[in-house]
């Protein structure tokens, strides 16, 4: 049983036996030990996973719930709590264990649901007061799973763990600062924004006057970045990079892989006003969508639609527009429309059938501004985890989007 299968099994155990797993021993038996086995550790070998590990602690009779040894030397200490106990951020008891053995550089505090990972970034052999990573068995994303894999027996390497810990620590700190600035910009930030574009002396009175305007601009700028540059999904699921060297399609809840041949079968290419025009192959999209015809929709993609995204226009890294095609005359002829990325709503008003039936190779997403209730739209590849940029020749770079649109009108 691999790690992902173990996590699925443990989720079922938690859901089916909440009332029965009601103390520390049952939590160890039914949740923690299977979790460690999923990471590749031999819980049946006391030389590898030692329960009630005794060390020279400051307090007599104090023992580690589990000591995990690699190559005969303790590397990880695990402190267990009952599933019914919530975990505090600090772990003084585990900290005492940690400082006793210089070879131990990783501490895990767990109640069988949450796993808090500690190390010694600040001072060697003194456990940090806060965990650098928390894994929740019942609520995790693919990125969390990728981090968890690094703690498995066959991949365990402290330098890699340390790099991960530092990365996560800096990420959390930077995000916290950025969030604070975005939610409530301080005087220094407002002054910085003003002086980047204007040369006059910035007074405190002007800073106070400009504060609500700067807050509004932050919100609008973030919305534009998300809409035009990153092209994220509405449900905020973590996107996966495409892998093209896999010979077979693999399907699970998290990833979908496509072969190079399958991707290249999605359309034929023609030249139009300096950009590549893609005429989608409906049959290829039907095959890769892997769904029944009655399930086709604007949210999932619709290879039977007469409309299709022919080319995605980029300026730098940002998507700035689309060439949208429409089949006519029993698909013998095509008509192309030019649509700027921030004018999709206007295009839909003129072509309401698109909003109902979708595009051949695009999904239609929307976001609503919480402050203004204004709805904006964006387009995304209808194939799971395959972006427009991954489809051969679909992306066309333009230096000046306004000039491009003007020339082809």
Describe the structure.
The chain is α+β, with helices and mostly antiparallel strands and 409 residues long. It has 12 helices and 14 strands. The protein has helices at residues 3-16, 24-38, 92-100, 142-149, 158-183, 187-197, 204-230, 260-264, 282-289, 344-350, 352-357, 401-408; strands at 49-54, 63-70, 73-80, 106-110, 114-118, 133-136, 267-272, 275-280, 307-315, 318-328, 333-340, 362-368, 375-381, 395-397. Strands 1-2-3-4-5-6 form a 6-stranded mixed sheet, with helices on both faces. A 4-stranded mixed sheet has the order 11-10-9-14, sandwiched between helices. A two-stranded antiparallel sheet has the order 7-8. The radius of gyration is 27 Å and the shape is globular. It starts with a helix and ends with a helix. Mean pLDDT is 81; it is low at 232-255.
Descriptors:
409 residues; 4-stranded mixed β-sheet; 12 helices; 14 strands
Provide a short characterization of the protein structure.
35% of the residues lie in helices and 23% in strands. By secondary structure, it is α+β, with helices and mostly antiparallel strands.
